[in-house]
Specification:
224 residues; alpha+beta; Archaeosine Trna-guanine Transglycosylase, Chain: A, domain 4; 33% helix; globular; PUA-like_sf; Lon N-terminal domain-containing protein; Lon_prtase_N; Lon_prtase_N_sf
Amino acid sequence: MPINAEYRGPGELPETIPVFPLPGALLLPRGQMPLNIFEPRYLAMVDDSLRDGHRLIGMIQPDLAHSKDESRPALFKVGCVGRITQLAESGDGRYILELTGVSRFKVVEELTVLTAYRQCKVDFFSFVDDFVARKGEDAVDRTALLEVLTDFLKANNLKVDWEGIESAPNEALVNALAMMSPYGPAEKQAMLEAADLKTRAEILIAVTEMDLAKKRTSGDTGLQ
């Protein structure tokens, strides 16, 4: 999706961003994530993001395995910042919005702030390739990806828009399938932190193959 802002490199993004911890949520550069915002602290986060003009929200997963306080869980060290590219008011106090991924980031430190939502100092310079659209997509094994997708759809009795898939560039295809995949936080985090698009596709293929093998062994053909 085209966006009004052009981010040509890490230096064009702020060092401090609001973060939205959400288990199982995977946002990737140039991917689109719909969000239904209803908690007061995150409504305030959206308002502040719009007021400040940057329209940016960092999506990150809580690291529940290393959390001592469930009300304020630890965070994984890598997330992805997205720009608010669509926003609608529901009429009952909610925001329905869409984020378009810009770049992954590493958390440098979580800040002590007065806002109810959390904020982090982040580093984008480890992910300079995220600012280059379709970087490395020629290295993706598209045939293997489509084969495992076909097997997954058959096993779960699902249908898909094959015309749209066949016309999608490799970057859009890999990232969309990764974001929509039904896997857990650990698998989503592995795909987020993948060194390049080829590696992300390989992780997605491997995870899907393991899931299919498990279902065949158990005789279960439905989604968990």
